[in-house]
């Protein structure tokens, strides 16, 4: 199976990114985690993205806060799908990171999830890999069914 790259701009991003790692683990998707910053370690970030396809990655998740250029900087170096997680790590509550991540120029797409949307980033990466992986697609279908059953159970138990 292809790997997912889970890249974050700082170790201070770990608490949010753990939800993505947990979801990938639950789906038994191999992944690598790295701290590479678009601003503090731009060479390492660029090199990771440039070599990711030949190293067996199928998608990259990039989480960053503040002036969050990490997802875009990685996307500039690869045609693998890049999923950006804008993080709430400043006085602007993540709106700064959201706009920095989502407002990519034409020709250089980044799929941006919600502010701190780490779980959805992992699920989107899984869905990308599942295009060519029937067993993974089956796991995702099963998860959707379980989620729906859990909601319906709450509905059935609702009393006001
Ligand atoms: C970004 O700046 C990181 O992704 C992090 O969200 C934010 C703050 O980083 P630290 O100053 O905590 O290392 O690059």
List the helices and strands and how they pair.
Blueprint: E1 3-8, H1 14-26, E2 31-35, H2 42-52, E3 57-65, H3 70-75, E4 82-87, H4 95-102, E5 111-112, H5 118-130, H6 134-157
Parallel strand pairs: 1-2, 1-3, 3-4, 4-5
Name a few traits of the molecule.
160 residues; alpha/beta; 18% strand; binds 5-O-phosphono-beta-D-ribofuranose; 6 helices; 5-stranded parallel sheet; Rossmann fold
Summary, kept brief:
This protein has helices at residues 14-26, 42-52, 70-75, 95-102, 118-130, 134-157; strands at residues 3-8, 31-35, 57-65, 82-87, 111-112. It has 160 residues and is of the alpha/beta class. The radius of gyration is 16 Å and the shape is globular.
Describe the fold and architecture.
This protein has 160 residues and is an alpha/beta fold. The chain has one domain: Rossmann fold (3-Layer(aba) Sandwich), CATH 3.40.50. Helix content is 47%, strand content 18%. It has six helices and five strands. The protein has helices at residues 14-26, 42-52, 70-75, 95-102, 118-130, 134-157; strands at 3-8, 31-35, 57-65, 82-87, 111-112. Strands 2-1-3-4-5 form a five-stranded parallel β-sheet. The mean pLDDT is 98. Bound molecules: 5-O-phosphono-beta-D-ribofuranose. 5-O-phosphono-beta-D-ribofuranose binds next to strand 3.
């Amino acid at each position: 199976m292809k790997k997912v790259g889970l890249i974050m701009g700082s170790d201070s991003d770990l608490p949010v990114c753990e939800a993505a790692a947990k979801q990938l683990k639950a789906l038994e998707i191999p992944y690598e985690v790295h701290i590479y910053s678009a601003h503090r370690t731009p060479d390492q970030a660029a090199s990771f993205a440039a070599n990711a396809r030949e190293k067996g990655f199928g998608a990259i998740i990039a989480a960053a806060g503040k002036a969050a250029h990490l997802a875009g900087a990685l996307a500039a170096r690869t045609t693998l799908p890049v999923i950006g997680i804008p993080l709430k790590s400043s006085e602007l509550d993540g709106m700064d990171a959201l706009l920095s991540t989502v407002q990519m120029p034409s020709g250089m797409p980044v799929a941006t999830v919600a502010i701190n949307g780490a779980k959805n980033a992992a699920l989107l990466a899984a869905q990308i890999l599942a295009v060519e992986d029937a067993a993974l697609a089956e796991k995702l279908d099963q998860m959707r069914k379980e989620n729906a059953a859990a909601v319906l159970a709450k509905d059935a138990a609702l009393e006001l």
